[in-house]
Amino acid sequence: MSGAVLLERERLTSGTTWHTAGLLWQLRPSDVEVELLAHTRRVVSRELEEETGLHTGWIQNGGLFIASNRQRLDEYKRLMSLGKAYGVESHVLSPAETKTLYPLMNVDDLYGTLYVPHDGTMDPAGTCTTLARAASARGAQVIENCPVTGIRVWTDDFGVRRVAGVETQHGSIQTPCVVNCAGVWASAVGRMAGVKVPLVAMHHAYVVTERIEGIQNMPNVRDHDASVYLRLQGDALSVGGYEANPIFWEEAVKYRPRAAGGLCLKTSTEKVCAVWSDDLRRA
Ligand SMILES: Cc1cc2nc3c(=O)[nH]c(=O)nc-3n(C[C@H](O)[C@H](O)[C@H](O)COP(=O)(O)OP(=O)(O)OC[C@H]3O[C@@H](n4cnc5c(N)ncnc54)[C@H](O)[C@@H]3O)c2cc1C
Protein backbone atom coordinates (compact mmCIF):
# COMPACT_ATOMS: atom_id res chain seq x y z
CA MET A 1 0.00 0.00 0.00
CA SER A 2 2.94 2.33 0.72
CA GLY A 3 3.38 4.83 -2.12
CA ALA A 4 -0.22 4.61 -3.32
CA VAL A 5 -2.00 7.98 -3.70
CA LEU A 6 -5.76 8.38 -4.09
CA LEU A 7 -6.68 11.63 -5.83
CA GLU A 8 -10.33 12.66 -5.37
CA ARG A 9 -11.82 15.61 -7.24
CA GLU A 10 -14.18 16.54 -4.39
CA ARG A 11 -14.80 14.45 -1.27
CA LEU A 12 -14.65 10.68 -0.90
CA THR A 13 -18.04 9.06 -1.74
CA SER A 14 -19.20 12.19 -3.59
CA GLY A 15 -19.70 10.28 -6.88
CA THR A 16 -22.17 7.40 -7.12
CA THR A 17 -21.12 5.79 -3.88
CA TRP A 18 -22.95 8.04 -1.40
CA HIS A 19 -26.37 6.95 -2.67
CA THR A 20 -25.71 3.30 -3.36
CA ALA A 21 -28.22 0.88 -1.86
CA GLY A 22 -25.25 -1.05 -0.43
CA LEU A 23 -27.02 -4.41 -0.67
CA LEU A 24 -24.77 -7.38 -0.14
CA TRP A 25 -26.21 -10.68 -1.36
CA GLN A 26 -23.79 -13.56 -0.88
CA LEU A 27 -25.38 -16.01 -3.28
CA ARG A 28 -24.79 -15.50 -7.00
CA PRO A 29 -24.77 -18.04 -9.85
CA SER A 30 -20.99 -17.80 -10.37
CA ASP A 31 -18.59 -19.37 -7.86
CA VAL A 32 -16.06 -16.56 -8.44
CA GLU A 33 -18.66 -13.99 -7.39
CA VAL A 34 -19.60 -16.05 -4.32
CA GLU A 35 -15.96 -16.09 -3.21
CA LEU A 36 -15.52 -12.36 -3.90
CA LEU A 37 -18.68 -11.50 -1.98
CA ALA A 38 -17.66 -13.71 0.95
CA HIS A 39 -14.34 -11.85 1.06
CA THR A 40 -16.11 -8.45 0.89
CA ARG A 41 -18.48 -9.43 3.65
CA ARG A 42 -15.59 -10.58 5.89
CA VAL A 43 -13.72 -7.31 5.33
CA VAL A 44 -16.73 -5.03 5.85
CA SER A 45 -18.37 -6.86 8.75
CA ARG A 46 -15.24 -7.79 10.74
CA GLU A 47 -11.71 -7.22 9.49
CA LEU A 48 -11.87 -3.45 8.85
CA GLU A 49 -13.33 -2.86 12.29
CA GLU A 50 -10.64 -5.02 13.94
CA GLU A 51 -7.91 -3.18 12.03
CA THR A 52 -9.12 0.41 12.52
CA GLY A 53 -11.37 0.32 15.58
CA LEU A 54 -14.05 2.06 13.43
CA HIS A 55 -17.49 0.63 12.73
CA THR A 56 -18.19 0.44 8.99
CA GLY A 57 -21.94 0.71 9.53
CA TRP A 58 -22.56 -2.87 8.36
CA ILE A 59 -26.05 -4.15 9.25
CA GLN A 60 -26.72 -7.87 9.09
CA ASN A 61 -30.46 -7.83 8.40
CA GLY A 62 -30.47 -10.82 6.02
CA GLY A 63 -31.54 -11.15 2.41
CA LEU A 64 -34.63 -12.66 0.81
CA PHE A 65 -34.91 -13.73 -2.85
CA ILE A 66 -38.49 -14.05 -4.08
CA ALA A 67 -39.65 -16.80 -6.47
CA SER A 68 -42.94 -16.12 -8.21
CA ASN A 69 -42.62 -19.15 -10.52
CA ARG A 70 -41.37 -22.73 -10.24
CA GLN A 71 -38.27 -22.23 -12.42
CA ARG A 72 -37.09 -19.38 -10.23
CA LEU A 73 -37.55 -21.51 -7.11
CA ASP A 74 -35.51 -24.33 -8.74
CA GLU A 75 -32.77 -21.79 -9.44
CA TYR A 76 -32.80 -20.71 -5.80
CA LYS A 77 -32.50 -24.35 -4.70
CA ARG A 78 -29.39 -24.62 -6.89
CA LEU A 79 -28.05 -21.43 -5.31
CA MET A 80 -28.62 -22.96 -1.87
CA SER A 81 -26.52 -26.01 -2.89
CA LEU A 82 -23.77 -23.76 -4.22
CA GLY A 83 -23.87 -21.81 -0.96
CA LYS A 84 -23.44 -25.04 1.04
CA ALA A 85 -20.19 -25.73 -0.82
CA TYR A 86 -18.92 -22.28 0.21
CA GLY A 87 -20.28 -22.30 3.77
CA VAL A 88 -23.03 -19.73 3.12
CA GLU A 89 -26.07 -20.51 5.25
CA SER A 90 -29.38 -20.27 3.37
CA HIS A 91 -32.90 -21.66 3.61
CA VAL A 92 -35.64 -22.23 1.05
CA LEU A 93 -38.88 -21.06 2.69
CA SER A 94 -42.52 -21.79 1.83
CA PRO A 95 -44.90 -18.82 1.38
CA ALA A 96 -46.25 -19.41 4.93
CA GLU A 97 -42.73 -19.46 6.41
CA THR A 98 -41.93 -16.30 4.44
CA LYS A 99 -45.01 -14.59 5.90
CA THR A 100 -43.82 -15.49 9.41
CA LEU A 101 -40.40 -13.99 8.68
CA TYR A 102 -41.75 -10.91 6.84
CA PRO A 103 -45.34 -10.30 8.05
CA LEU A 104 -45.82 -7.20 5.89
CA MET A 105 -45.24 -9.08 2.65
CA ASN A 106 -48.06 -10.20 0.37
CA VAL A 107 -47.13 -13.87 -0.30
CA ASP A 108 -50.32 -14.97 -2.15
CA ASP A 109 -48.62 -15.45 -5.53
CA LEU A 110 -45.27 -16.74 -4.24
CA TYR A 111 -43.82 -20.19 -4.88
CA GLY A 112 -41.28 -19.70 -2.14
CA THR A 113 -38.24 -17.68 -1.18
CA LEU A 114 -34.54 -18.12 -0.50
CA TYR A 115 -33.51 -16.64 2.85
CA VAL A 116 -29.84 -15.88 3.57
CA PRO A 117 -29.57 -14.75 7.23
CA HIS A 118 -26.01 -13.41 7.00
CA ASP A 119 -26.65 -11.10 4.03
CA GLY A 120 -26.89 -7.44 4.89
CA THR A 121 -26.51 -3.78 4.09
CA MET A 122 -23.30 -1.82 3.74
CA ASP A 123 -23.09 1.83 4.72
CA PRO A 124 -21.23 3.48 1.81
CA ALA A 125 -19.86 6.44 3.77
CA GLY A 126 -18.81 4.33 6.77
CA THR A 127 -17.20 1.66 4.60
CA CYS A 128 -15.32 4.22 2.53
CA THR A 129 -14.08 6.19 5.54
CA THR A 130 -12.88 3.02 7.26
CA LEU A 131 -11.17 1.75 4.10
CA ALA A 132 -9.40 5.11 3.70
CA ARG A 133 -8.31 5.02 7.35
CA ALA A 134 -6.91 1.48 6.97
CA ALA A 135 -5.11 2.39 3.74
CA SER A 136 -3.59 5.54 5.30
CA ALA A 137 -2.35 3.52 8.27
CA ARG A 138 -0.53 1.27 5.79
CA GLY A 139 1.18 4.18 4.08
CA ALA A 140 -1.30 5.26 1.40
CA GLN A 141 -2.22 8.92 0.91
CA VAL A 142 -5.74 10.19 0.29
CA ILE A 143 -5.89 13.70 -1.19
CA GLU A 144 -9.34 15.26 -1.57
CA ASN A 145 -10.34 18.34 -3.58
CA CYS A 146 -7.60 17.48 -6.03
CA PRO A 147 -8.92 16.78 -9.57
CA VAL A 148 -6.73 14.89 -12.01
CA THR A 149 -6.34 17.29 -14.94
CA GLY A 150 -4.04 15.27 -17.18
CA ILE A 151 -2.13 12.02 -17.57
CA ARG A 152 1.32 12.10 -19.16
CA VAL A 153 2.14 9.19 -21.46
CA TRP A 154 5.15 8.15 -23.53
CA THR A 155 5.71 5.47 -26.15
CA ASP A 156 8.38 2.83 -25.53
CA ASP A 157 10.69 1.21 -28.12
CA PHE A 158 8.05 -1.41 -28.92
CA GLY A 159 5.41 1.22 -29.65
CA VAL A 160 3.53 0.58 -26.38
CA ARG A 161 2.08 3.67 -24.73
CA ARG A 162 3.03 3.90 -21.07
CA VAL A 163 2.08 6.22 -18.22
CA ALA A 164 4.71 8.68 -16.99
CA GLY A 165 2.74 10.76 -14.50
CA VAL A 166 -0.45 12.44 -13.36
CA GLU A 167 -1.15 16.18 -13.46
CA THR A 168 -3.26 18.09 -10.96
CA GLN A 169 -3.88 21.76 -10.22
CA HIS A 170 -1.60 21.38 -7.20
CA GLY A 171 1.33 19.69 -8.91
CA SER A 172 2.23 16.47 -10.67
CA ILE A 173 3.07 12.95 -9.52
CA GLN A 174 5.53 10.75 -11.40
CA THR A 175 4.26 7.21 -11.65
CA PRO A 176 4.30 4.32 -14.14
CA CYS A 177 0.89 3.10 -12.93
CA VAL A 178 -2.55 4.72 -12.78
CA VAL A 179 -5.77 3.01 -11.71
CA ASN A 180 -8.77 4.74 -13.24
CA CYS A 181 -11.56 4.50 -10.63
CA ALA A 182 -13.51 7.61 -11.59
CA GLY A 183 -16.88 5.84 -11.93
CA VAL A 184 -19.11 7.48 -14.53
CA TRP A 185 -16.30 9.96 -15.19
CA ALA A 186 -13.88 7.13 -16.07
CA SER A 187 -14.25 7.76 -19.79
CA ALA A 188 -13.12 11.40 -19.33
CA VAL A 189 -10.12 10.31 -17.26
CA GLY A 190 -9.30 7.59 -19.81
CA ARG A 191 -9.32 10.16 -22.61
CA MET A 192 -6.53 12.05 -20.77
CA ALA A 193 -4.29 9.06 -21.55
CA GLY A 194 -5.75 8.48 -25.01
CA VAL A 195 -7.69 5.43 -23.79
CA LYS A 196 -11.32 4.78 -24.71
CA VAL A 197 -13.22 3.40 -21.69
CA PRO A 198 -16.35 1.55 -22.91
CA LEU A 199 -18.65 2.81 -20.18
CA VAL A 200 -21.90 4.75 -20.32
CA ALA A 201 -24.14 5.78 -17.44
CA MET A 202 -27.85 4.92 -17.31
CA HIS A 203 -30.71 6.53 -15.44
CA HIS A 204 -31.73 4.59 -12.34
CA ALA A 205 -34.81 5.47 -10.30
CA TYR A 206 -35.38 4.72 -6.63
CA VAL A 207 -37.92 5.79 -4.05
CA VAL A 208 -37.56 6.13 -0.30
CA THR A 209 -40.83 5.60 1.59
CA GLU A 210 -41.96 7.30 4.76
CA ARG A 211 -41.66 5.42 8.05
CA ILE A 212 -43.37 2.01 7.93
CA GLU A 213 -44.38 0.47 11.24
CA GLY A 214 -43.12 -3.10 11.58
CA ILE A 215 -40.45 -2.88 8.88
CA GLN A 216 -37.58 -2.65 11.38
CA ASN A 217 -35.00 -5.47 11.11
CA MET A 218 -36.71 -7.01 8.08
CA PRO A 219 -34.38 -8.55 5.46
CA ASN A 220 -33.62 -6.85 2.14
CA VAL A 221 -35.72 -8.26 -0.68
CA ARG A 222 -34.79 -9.04 -4.29
CA ASP A 223 -37.36 -10.08 -6.89
CA HIS A 224 -35.42 -11.18 -9.96
CA ASP A 225 -38.53 -11.60 -12.16
CA ALA A 226 -39.87 -8.15 -11.38
CA SER A 227 -36.29 -6.72 -11.42
CA VAL A 228 -36.69 -4.80 -8.20
CA TYR A 229 -35.05 -4.61 -4.79
CA LEU A 230 -36.35 -3.44 -1.42
CA ARG A 231 -33.77 -2.17 1.00
CA LEU A 232 -34.28 -1.46 4.66
CA GLN A 233 -33.41 2.18 5.33
CA GLY A 234 -33.84 2.87 9.02
CA ASP A 235 -37.60 2.73 9.62
CA ALA A 236 -38.38 3.06 5.91
CA LEU A 237 -37.83 1.21 2.65
CA SER A 238 -35.77 2.22 -0.31
CA VAL A 239 -37.23 0.65 -3.46
CA GLY A 240 -35.22 0.47 -6.66
CA GLY A 241 -35.53 -1.30 -9.97
CA TYR A 242 -33.48 -2.49 -12.90
CA GLU A 243 -35.24 -0.83 -15.84
CA ALA A 244 -36.08 -3.11 -18.79
CA ASN A 245 -35.51 -0.26 -21.26
CA PRO A 246 -32.80 1.77 -19.62
CA ILE A 247 -32.26 5.37 -20.64
CA PHE A 248 -28.60 5.96 -21.46
CA TRP A 249 -27.17 9.13 -19.99
CA GLU A 250 -24.11 10.17 -21.97
CA GLU A 251 -24.18 13.70 -20.47
CA ALA A 252 -23.72 12.29 -16.92
CA VAL A 253 -20.02 12.86 -17.34
CA LYS A 254 -20.67 16.63 -17.56
CA TYR A 255 -22.23 16.68 -14.09
CA ARG A 256 -20.00 17.37 -11.13
CA PRO A 257 -20.24 14.98 -8.16
CA ARG A 258 -22.44 15.49 -5.12
CA ALA A 259 -20.94 18.71 -3.77
CA ALA A 260 -22.13 20.61 -6.84
CA GLY A 261 -25.62 19.13 -7.05
CA GLY A 262 -24.58 15.64 -7.97
CA LEU A 263 -25.94 13.02 -10.31
CA CYS A 264 -29.43 13.07 -8.78
CA LEU A 265 -32.36 14.06 -10.97
CA LYS A 266 -36.02 14.19 -9.98
CA THR A 267 -38.24 11.54 -11.55
CA SER A 268 -42.02 11.29 -11.96
CA THR A 269 -44.53 9.04 -10.19
CA GLU A 270 -45.65 7.70 -13.62
CA LYS A 271 -42.14 6.56 -14.49
CA VAL A 272 -41.67 4.91 -11.12
CA CYS A 273 -45.03 3.11 -11.32
CA ALA A 274 -44.25 1.86 -14.84
CA VAL A 275 -41.06 0.22 -13.60
CA TRP A 276 -42.39 -1.18 -10.35
CA SER A 277 -45.97 -2.25 -10.91
CA ASP A 278 -45.04 -5.80 -9.83
CA ASP A 279 -43.27 -4.61 -6.76
CA LEU A 280 -46.08 -2.36 -5.59
CA ARG A 281 -48.33 -5.44 -5.71
CA ARG A 282 -45.96 -7.28 -3.35
CA ALA A 283 -46.27 -4.87 -0.41
C1 LIG B 1 -29.33 3.95 -6.36
C2 LIG B 1 -28.13 3.04 -6.49
C3 LIG B 1 -28.16 1.80 -5.89
C4 LIG B 1 -27.05 0.94 -5.97
N1 LIG B 1 -27.10 -0.24 -5.31
C5 LIG B 1 -26.02 -1.04 -5.27
C6 LIG B 1 -26.02 -2.22 -4.47
O1 LIG B 1 -26.98 -2.53 -3.79
N2 LIG B 1 -24.90 -3.00 -4.45
C7 LIG B 1 -23.80 -2.65 -5.19
O2 LIG B 1 -22.80 -3.39 -5.13
N3 LIG B 1 -23.79 -1.54 -5.97
C8 LIG B 1 -24.85 -0.73 -6.02
N4 LIG B 1 -24.84 0.41 -6.78
C9 LIG B 1 -23.66 0.68 -7.59
C10 LIG B 1 -22.55 1.31 -6.75
O3 LIG B 1 -23.07 2.42 -6.06
C11 LIG B 1 -21.41 1.75 -7.66
O4 LIG B 1 -20.96 0.67 -8.44
C12 LIG B 1 -20.23 2.27 -6.84
O5 LIG B 1 -20.65 3.21 -5.89
C13 LIG B 1 -19.22 2.88 -7.79
O6 LIG B 1 -18.13 3.33 -7.02
P1 LIG B 1 -16.90 3.99 -7.74
O7 LIG B 1 -15.91 4.30 -6.66
O8 LIG B 1 -16.49 3.16 -8.90
O9 LIG B 1 -17.48 5.35 -8.38
P2 LIG B 1 -17.88 6.72 -7.65
O10 LIG B 1 -18.44 6.52 -6.28
O11 LIG B 1 -18.74 7.49 -8.61
O12 LIG B 1 -16.48 7.42 -7.45
C14 LIG B 1 -15.79 8.02 -8.53
C15 LIG B 1 -15.04 9.20 -7.94
O13 LIG B 1 -14.16 9.71 -8.92
C16 LIG B 1 -14.07 11.11 -8.67
N5 LIG B 1 -13.54 11.75 -9.89
C17 LIG B 1 -14.14 11.92 -11.09
N6 LIG B 1 -13.33 12.54 -11.94
C18 LIG B 1 -12.18 12.79 -11.27
C19 LIG B 1 -10.94 13.44 -11.61
N7 LIG B 1 -10.73 13.98 -12.82
N8 LIG B 1 -9.98 13.53 -10.66
C20 LIG B 1 -10.16 13.00 -9.41
N9 LIG B 1 -11.32 12.38 -9.04
C21 LIG B 1 -12.30 12.28 -9.96
C22 LIG B 1 -15.48 11.56 -8.34
O14 LIG B 1 -15.49 12.77 -7.63
C23 LIG B 1 -15.97 10.36 -7.53
O15 LIG B 1 -15.85 10.57 -6.13
C24 LIG B 1 -25.91 1.30 -6.72
C25 LIG B 1 -25.88 2.56 -7.35
C26 LIG B 1 -26.98 3.42 -7.22
C27 LIG B 1 -26.93 4.78 -7.89
UniProtKB/TrEMBL annotation:
Residues 5-246 form the FAD dependent oxidoreductase domain. InterPro entries: FAD-dep_OxRdtase (IPR006076), FAD/NAD-bd_sf (IPR036188). Signal peptide: none annotated. Pfam families: DAO. This is Sarcosine dehydrogenase. The gene is SARDH.
